[in-house]
Amino acid sequence: MLHRHFLRVSIFLLTLFVLGGSLASARDLALVSNKSNPVGAITLPDLVKICKAQTNRWPDGKPVTFVMRSPSVPAMKVVLEKVYGMSESEVDDLIVTSNRGRPTHPAILVATSDDELVNKVATVPGAIGVVDVYSINSSVAVVKVAGKLPLEPGYLLHGN
Description:
Elements: H1 2-25, E1 29-34, E2 41-42, H2 44-51, E3 65-69, H3 77-84, H4 88-99, E4 108-111, H5 114-123, E5 127-132, E6 140-145
């Protein structure tokens, strides 16, 4: 009897540990833009084109730069799945290929932290990026994705 109780408690604790670890890595992300960009909302197909460096200019002529965390960062899993539809290594290759021949204005920049990402988006004209919602500050503008803002039900970049 004691053995069975111990086994149940162990399974329960293991389940909490596993679920807790995956829940801790699930984050809500937001698409943010340089404040000088005219974009306040974007469709999913247009976001995919920007992320894959298939769109290189905004309607006003400014070059587009997409800023993201490294594809290996756990928080980027949702972006790899829902936006890129590619593996981590495929996105790494895309970044290298997209930036070839663009030394002064890369198509895709990789930031080492959310704070660095927000700073790059704020200071690079034409920049747009994906960042943890809790890292957003007044230096960037939040962009609707497919008609929804972060934390609204059905928002594309929800972390779960």
